[in-house]
Design a protein that fits this description.
heterodimer; A: 119 residues; mainly beta; 7-stranded mixed β-sheet; 4-stranded antiparallel β-sheet; 0% helix; B: 111 residues; 6-stranded mixed β-sheet; 3-stranded antiparallel β-sheet; globular
């Protein structure tokens, strides 16, 4: 059974960079699009972007200028870096597997990690 | 790209059926049969329950079904159970630049 686990700092200061890593275990890493999604407290879900195992990326237009998603296929890991954060970036961040052949369904999710932007 | 439109809340009694709508545009829901639905219990990660409009992943009960007409997709939960009380989100493909757009979510209450 595929499992995804987010890791990284739980608190980030305003204007600094938010960095998270997702480790995938128990299944194939190749031929999937590895995604980040976030959910501010009490609000809905927002797609952030994805990376393919080749390094190909696709980002949300609203975050594109501050966002980098990278992959280390040898370690079955992918990472998110979001620069110049503000309080509006406070959210639970989820990593998930996107399956292109299932209409871009996000079929496996990590448990999520709460990141707070505060001084 | 605007989020897909869902009603903020829906409710039904145990055993009844409830339908949740997800309205997009001709640029997303209306053009592509790439609509998914997710169930999220409080404090938990979302779970995929419907993909490609009306397909169920293995293990998802047949009480959950999906459909689409024009720019609106729908999720129907039949035979409501207490554990169905959760937030439900739809997504759609909206082109290569926006492969995933979420709906605002619907809180389903089982009365």
């Amino acid at each position: 059974q595929v499992q995804l686990q987010e890791s990284g700092p739980r608190m980030v200061k305003p204007s600094e960079t938010l960095s998270l890593t997702c480790t995938v275990s128990g299944g194939s890493f190749n031929n999937y699009f590895w995604s980040w999604i976030r959910q501010p407290p009490g609000k809905g879900l927002e797609w952030i972007g994805y990376v393919y195992n080749s390094g190909f990326t696709n980002y949300s237009p609203s975050l594109k200028s501050r966002l980098t998603i990278s992959v280390d296929a040898s370690k079955h890991q992918f990472s998110l870096k979001l620069t110049s954060v503000t309080a509006a970036d406070t959210a639970v961040y989820y990593c998930a597997r996107l399956v292109l052949m299932s209409g871009n369904a996000l079929d496996m999710w990590g448990q999520g990690t709460m990141v707070t932007v505060s001084s | 790209q605007s989020a897909l439109t869902q009603p903020p809340s829906a409710s039904g009694s145990p055993g009844q059926s409830v339908t949740i709508s997800c309205t997009g545009t001709s640029s997303d829901v209306g053009t592509y049969d790439y609509v998914s639905w997710y169930q999220q219990h409080p404090g938990k990660a979302p779970k995929l329950i419907i993909y490609e409009v009306n397909k169920r992943p293995s293990g998802v009960p047949g009480r959950f079904s999906g459909s689409k007409s024009g720019n609106t997709a729908s999720l129907t939960v039949s035979g409501l159970q207490a554990d169905d009380e959760a937030d439900y989100y739809c997504t759609s493909y909206a082109g290569d630049n926006i492969p995933v757009v979420f709906g605002g979510g619907t809180k389903l209450t089982v009365l």
